[in-house]
Specification:
4 domains, 2 strands, mainly alpha, 30 helices, 71% helix
């Protein structure tokens, strides 16, 4: 699309949409004195993390404490107390300083003190007090616990803090829990000792990964976008796909896939690329709700697209103790299948509606695009090369950031100034606050899980329930293809998938992933599912929540840009993202799709990939109601059932699927020749 065709919404309107639909970006305006202080603190946060991860030697607990102090202190300064409808509670004039209530400022200082109290103590003193904390330790731990819950509520909403409080109650009142969940319980001192004094709670793996890896990759994404990499991706997507039928929708898919390599946020990706693609889709004839759904579904793919993968990739590295390159390799083809599924349905929808592509004068020129932005891809190449060569993620991110700064100052287009760099460092730190607060809150939940062993208890309940259901199904259908164990696995996957989607309603993907994997991993391990596979299964369904009503945040943001009904947009986005719901089942039953899973063979990989592509394509035909001609409702149901044969592992089931598709193909050819209308 030519530069003389601006998006329908201004940048200010887009920012407002992001604030309304993404609680992580609902920052309040402050007066100039406090604004200068906050911006300086944000830049200092970026500078500290860059130094600590790249060149400094900061002991683990202190590094996590400093990160936490920045996050919690800035959350209270930037995010206000809000009513249930999301509107800000403005304090009276006498009760605020520079637009912020005095109480919030006090909480900010208390947050910094509580976060740094333990890490600043000599390590030998901390070691002595573990198991026997002093009264002041308990006081500071309690204060930090309350502060973390409130910071998480302000930054991501009430759902995650409520879950954390339920887990705290479960830890204390364990003797009164029902059935297999019953345990001996703990005292408040014992709870604070575990959550505050050890590395199993607030200072645990979740906040550690945020401090060590995620912060740097988010900062890299902000800098890479600022030097023009995001615009390069959007322009390349237009050159590649814009001229074809329904071109703007295909541009949305490719641009969101490209943007996903440097952005792990579904909503940010939706607003960034959707500002251009959604108006273009509406212009060529797509319904508003469909245009919004295409952008939302494509943008959620950013969280499953290497090399960023949101924060989940780095959590997997720590949990599974495998190199980041293995996680990225495992994520590659499932992500491609997700985009293939969206592309199939978008293409069929365009053919069904008879939509045109973009005209030549509406498209950028490849030569001009590469001439203006080719330098901006160098930092991404450096980042990916260092990861693939076996360097640590933080090492790769540090040198990727250095490359962004060097390219930014040398590139004649989108040249960085000192002020631009200052603003980018501030924006990068600001974008990490919500995920940092969520990580601290998740640390409370994980701490309770390790203290009480509830993960294994819940895993046992899931497996036992699934086994009972499987036994019932097997007794009703004794000649079915599945036995009791196979039915137990299938039902367990369904239960876990539904739990992930429900948990993901209003909770960041990474938090959902960490919580659910504590339950899913033990349950699936009992059913002989590899740890890498179970982690990816939970991760994928956590991402799916961003486009699953009733709380489909990415879809609702897209609806705000498209001017469409949010619920209708969310339903359409879920339909377009059906591939993301099928792919996890594919790699559970055939782990070869993940490339680095145990038992990988190229034969199994190609058979699985081919079958998954055919199944996802068939499901796209069924949902679109169109192939080379319109399909009747009965035919659509038939094709949807045939799709299940394709995604089932094995060449024999694929052959059955092909045979069952022959009648539909013959009917389609006949209908196309006769030019019959849709029924």
């Amino acid at each position: 699309m030519s530069s003389d065709m601006p998006p329908e919404l201004t940048p200010e309107q887009l920012a407002e949409i992001e604030r309304n639909y993404d609680p992580e970006m609902a920052f309040r305006a402050t007066g100039k004195p406090l604004s200068i202080f906050i911006t300086t603190a944000l830049v200092a946060m970026s500078a500290y993390h860059f130094y600590a991860s790249g060149f400094g030697l900061v002991r683990e607990l202190l590094h996590r404490g400093i990160h936490l102090s920045f996050v919690l202190g800035l959350v209270f300064l930037l995010l206000s107390w809000r009513k249930t409808d999301g509107t800000e509670v403005a304090p009276p004039a006498w009760y605020r300083f520079s637009g912020v209530s005095i109480l919030d400022i006090i909480f900010a200082f208390l947050a910094v003190g509580a976060s740094l109290y333990l890490p600043l103590l000599p390590p030998e003193i901390v070691a002595e007090r573990v198991g026997n904390p002093s009264q002041f330790d308990v006081f500071m731990g309690t204060a930090l616990l309350v502060i973390v819950l409130e910071a998480a509520r302000r930054s991501i909403g009430p759902t995650l803090p409520i879950i954390a409080m339920i887990f705290i109650g479960f830890a204390i009142f364990g003797p009164y829990a029902p059935g297999a969940l019953k345990h001996g319980g703990t005292s408040w001192l014992g709870l604070i000792n575990h959550l505050y004094m050890t590395n199993q709670g607030i200072y645990g793996i979740a906040i550690g990964v945020m401090a060590q890896y995620v912060f740097l990759f988010i900062l890299f994404g902000v800098l890479a976008t600022r030097i023009g990499l995001g615009q390069l991706f959007i322009d390349l997507a237009m050159v590649i796909a814009g001229r074809y039928s329904g071109g703007p929708a295909k541009v949305a898919i490719f641009s969101s896939a490209f943007m996903g390599t440097i952005s792990g946020s579904s909503i940010a990706n939706t607003v960034t690329t959707g500002a251009l693609t959604i108006p273009a889709m509406k212009k060529v004839g797509y319904p508003a709700h469909f245009a919004g759904a295409v952008e939302a579904t494509s943008s959620t793919g950013g969280q499953i697209t290497p090399p960023i993968l949101g924060a989940a990739a780095f959590i997997m590295v720590e949990y599974l103790e495998i190199p980041l390159r293995d996680v990225l390799a495992a994520a590659l083809f499932p992500a491609m299948l997700h985009y293939f599924g969206i592309f199939t349905m978008v293409h069929l929808e365009a053919k069904k509606l008879g939509l045109r592509g973009l005209k030549a004068e509406e498209l950028p020129k490849m030569g001009i695009v590469l001439k203006q932005h080719w330098l901006s891809v160098i930092p991404l190449i450096i980042l990916v090369y260092l990861i693939l060569s076996g360097r640590t993620p933080d090492f790769a991110a540090v040198y990727g950031i250095i490359a962004c700064v060097v390219v930014g100052f040398l590139n004649p287009v989108n040249r960085l100034s000192v002020k631009d760099l200052w603003d980018a460092l501030s924006a990068g730190a600001k974008n990490t606050l919500a995920v940092g607060a969520a990580a601290a809150c998740v640390g409370i939940i994980v701490g309770v899980v390790t203290l009480t062993g509830v993960g294994f208890r819940l895993g046992y309940v899931v497996v036992q329930t699934a086994t009972d259901i499987g036994a019932s199904i097997s007794s009703l259908y004794p000649f079915s293809y599945f036995g009791v164990e196979q039915w137990a696995l299938f039902v367990s996957l369904i239960l876990i998938a539904v739990s992930c989607i429900i948990m993901g309603a209003g909770i960041p993907t990474t938090a959902t992933y960490i919580i659910l994997v504590a339950v899913a991993a033990p349950a699936l391990a009992q059913l002989q599912v590899q740890p890498l596979v179970s982690h990816f299964f939970v991760f994928y369904y956590g991402v799916l929540a961003d486009i699953t009503p009733p709380v489909a945040l990415a879809a609702y943001a897209a609806a705000g840009i498209a001017g469409s009904n949010p619920f209708k947009t969310g339903n359409t986005a879920f339909r377009l993202g059906i591939a993301k719901a099928l792919v996890p089942f594919v790699f559970v039953y055939s782990p070869a799709l993940l490339l680095v899973a145990d038992g990988f063979t190229w034969y199994a990989f190609f058979i699985t990939l081919l079958g998954a592509a055919m199944g996802i394509g068939s499901m796209g035909i069924a949902f679109a109601g169109y192939f080379i001609a319109p399909l009747k409702m009965g035919e659509r149901i038939w094709v949807a059932l045939v799709a299940l044969f394709f995604v089932a592992p094995g060449i024999s089931t694929m052959a059955v699927g092909l045979i069952l598709m022959v009648p539909i193909l013959l009917i389609q050819l006949k209908r196309r020749a006769e030019g019959q209308p849709a029924l």
